[in-house]
């Protein structure tokens, strides 16, 4: 009969390991535009009801007054919860940089034609003048900036206008942003892109500045919302929890060796 | 000849007496010694399993540790009265630290209450109040179970539509008595219950407890804190001490078994010479 404590502690260690991995990823993205930090959600595993056997009786005789123990099987890391709190806005001075202040995501067209969502508004023009993000994905609104445009203006409501050579303003398009009832349920795809899932709910798309939507700020980028100090504190906690559980592995092992040495 | 016979009789009587004595010594050593010590080792093992589970859940939100303690019981074994230690388990309901998350739908409880959720197998209790609104508009916990209000599952589809002013999302405010206001209008009140006798709580895993419906008492004394969740209440220091103690007691029992085993060896080999 193996020692339950051994596998319980081992599961505890692997849960903490996942937490450390996740914190490492947060820390690695301290400088990533629009990055949202994530935390790991833990929960306890199932419990086994054990009735303490009584001496002189059958091995597992259960009687009314025999005390009941509930032996848990450890913990598991069940999901990643992303925290969508606003990151601070930093001014870049680049007219094609956009940050969303408040709720919402820019919509970009993925290579497979589906829509990806991002808070990273670091846009530029490709050779044909199309607005693309830094992975080369075009904005879903397909906004083309003519080559002869002198300046670009993006209003807080997402209207993009170009200032032409003869002081004429030409409206190029309207950027719309998407909002989710439960952004924490979005699936991170890498490259700062999220995809909608059943858990996130459907995207509501509207103009920036409408009710429930944030506004677009031209010339700013949203920094990552990772707080280094907070992550370091959590890292220490996770590391210590890992260590504590490894001590339990050692103890369980000691107990097993004690058991083995009953027989001379 | 006659004398010889006499010796033979007394010898057989003597052997009979000695064998009976030996049998009773062996029996005593077995039931009072080895059996009891084995049982103690089994119990210590279980105590260690409980400690291991506490330690594995140091960072589990809303987790409540278990404590093992021993109760002395008198028992009748083979017609003799024997004293035994029986392990008992108790939930440690100490308040965990409330951690701020800044998420409007994270709730922590200060006090003895529990949130009630509607699972697939009836209502369950939890202290893990990290919630969100599901696609169909219900307030659900992290595992998708509907959170109960005073008037049934809390339904707030308005939350899914953009609601507030100045580009703000629909605003949820939870007062400290659990009253939920959506865009300043009262929607419902979180159902919070207490259980007087915590030994009736069944641990279900996934941060849930189950209890008989009749054991739930409405709770008006606990306070809900919005934007916080409760961390687990396991104290690593206590658990480490328990762990070391259990390990040492385990070793002690093992030595006791060895000693008893040696005594048995003595009894059988010495008396066997007759």
Give the helix/strand layout.
The complex is a heterodimer of chains A (264) and B (274).
Chain A: H1 4-28, E1 38-44, E2 47-51, E3 68-72, E4 75-82, E5 89-91, E6 98-101, E7 105-109, E8 115-118, E9 124-125, E10 131-132, E11 151-154, E12 159-163, E13 169-174, E14 177-179, E15 187-188, E16 194-195, E17 204-206, E18 215-218, E19 220-222, H2 228-260
Antiparallel strand pairs in A: 1-4, 2-3, 5-19, 6-18, 7-8, 7-14, 9-10, 11-12, 12-13, 14-17, 15-16
Helix pairs in contact in A: 1-2
Chain B: H1 2-56, E1 66-77, E2 80-91, E3 98-100, E4 106-110, E5 114-119, E6 122-126, E7 129-133, E8 139-141, E9 146-149, E10 152-153, E11 172-174, E12 179-182, E13 185-189, E14 192-195, E15 202-205, E16 208-210, E17 216-218, E18 223-226, E19 228-230, H2 236-271
Antiparallel strand pairs in B: 1-2, 3-19, 4-7, 4-18, 5-6, 5-9, 5-14, 6-16, 7-8, 9-10, 11-12, 12-13, 14-17, 15-16
Helix pairs in contact in B: 1-2
Q: What does the model show?
A:
The complex is a heterodimer of chains A (264) and B (274). Chain A is of the alpha+beta class and 264 residues long. Helices cover 22% and strands 29% of the residues of chain A. In chain A, the strands form eight sheets. A four-stranded antiparallel β-sheet of chain A has the order 8-7-14-17, with no helix packed on it. Chain A has a three-stranded antiparallel β-sheet with strand order 11-12-13, with no helix packed on it. In chain A, helix 1 (4-28) packs antiparallel against helix 2 (228-260). The two termini of chain A are 20 Å apart. The model of chain A is unreliable at 55-64 (pLDDT under 50). Chain B is elongated, with a radius of gyration of 31 Å. In chain B, strand 11 and strand 12 (179-182) form a beta hairpin. Chain B contains two helices and 19 strands. Chain B is of the alpha+beta class. In chain B, the strands form five sheets. In chain B, strands 5, 6, 9, 10, 14, 15, 16 and 17 form an eight-stranded antiparallel β-sheet that branches. Chain B has a four-stranded antiparallel β-sheet with strand order 8-7-4-18, with no helix packed on it. The chains are: A alpha+beta (264), B alpha+beta (274).
């Amino acid at each position: 009969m193996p020692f339950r404590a051994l596998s319980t502690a081992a599961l505890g260690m692997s849960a903490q390991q996942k937490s450390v991995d996740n914190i490492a990823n947060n820390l690695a993205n301290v400088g990533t535009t629009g990055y949202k930090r994530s935390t790991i959600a833990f929960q306890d595993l199932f419990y086994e009801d054990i009735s303490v056997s009584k001496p002189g009786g059958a091995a597992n005789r259960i009687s009314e007054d025999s005390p009941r123990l509930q032996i848990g099987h450890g913990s598991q890391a069940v999901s990643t919860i992303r925290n969508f709190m606003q990151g601070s806005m930093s001014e870049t001075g680049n007219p094609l940089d956009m940050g969303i202040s408040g709720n919402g995501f820019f919509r970009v067209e993925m290579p497979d034609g589906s829509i990806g969502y991002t808070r990273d508004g670091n846009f530029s023009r490709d050779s044909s003048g199309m607005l693309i993000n830094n992975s080369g994905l075009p904005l879903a609104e397909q906004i083309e900036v003519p080559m002869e445009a002198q300046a670009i203006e993006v209003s807080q409501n997402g209207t993009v206008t170009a200032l032409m050579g003869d002081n004429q303003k030409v409206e190029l398009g309207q950027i719309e942003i998407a909002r989710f009832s439960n952004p924490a349920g979005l699936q991170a795809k890498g490259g700062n892109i999220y995809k909608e899932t059943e858990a996130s709910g459907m995207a509501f798309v509207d103009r920036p500045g409408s009710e429930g939507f944030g506004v677009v700020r031209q010339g700013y980028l949203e920094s990552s919302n990772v707080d280094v100090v907070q992550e370091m504190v959590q890292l220490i906690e996770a590391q210590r929890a890992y260590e504590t559980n490894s001590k339990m592995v050692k103890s369980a092992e000691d107990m097993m060796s004690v058991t083995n040495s009953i027989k001379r | 000849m006659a004398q010889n016979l006499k010796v033979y009789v007394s010898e057989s009587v003597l052997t009979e007496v000695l064998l009976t004595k030996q049998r009773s010594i062996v029996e005593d050593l077995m039931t009072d010694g080895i059996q009891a010590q084995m049982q103690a080792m089994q119990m210590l093992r279980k105590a260690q399993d409980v400690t291991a589970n506490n330690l594995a859940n140091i960072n589990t939100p809303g987790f409540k540790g278990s404590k093992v303690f021993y109760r002395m019981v008198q028992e009748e074994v083979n017609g003799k009265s024997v004293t035994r230690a029986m392990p008992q388990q108790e939930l440690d309901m100490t308040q965990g630290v409330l951690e701020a998350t800044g998420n409007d739908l994270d709730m922590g409880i200060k006090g003895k209450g529990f949130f009630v959720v509607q699972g697939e197998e009836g209502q369950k209790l939890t202290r893990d109040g990290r919630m969100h609104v599901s696609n169909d508009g219900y307030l659900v916990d992290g595992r998708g179970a509907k959170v109960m209000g005073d008037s049934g599952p809390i339904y707030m589809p308005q939350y899914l539509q953009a609601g507030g002013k100045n580009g703000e999302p629909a605003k949820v405010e939870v007062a400290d008595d659990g009253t939920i206001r959506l865009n300043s209008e009262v929607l419902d009140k979180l159902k919070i219950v207490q259980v007087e006798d915590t030994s009736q709580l069944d641990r279900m895993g996934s941060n849930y407890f189950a209890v008989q419906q009749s054991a739930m008492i409405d709770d008006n004394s606990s306070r809900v804190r919005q934007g916080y969740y409760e961390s687990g209440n396991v104290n690593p220091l206590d658990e480490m001490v328990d762990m070391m103690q259990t390990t040492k007691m385990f070793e002690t029992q093992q030595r006791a078994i060895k000693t008893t085993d040696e005594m048995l060896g003595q009894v059988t080999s010495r008396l066997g010479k007759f």
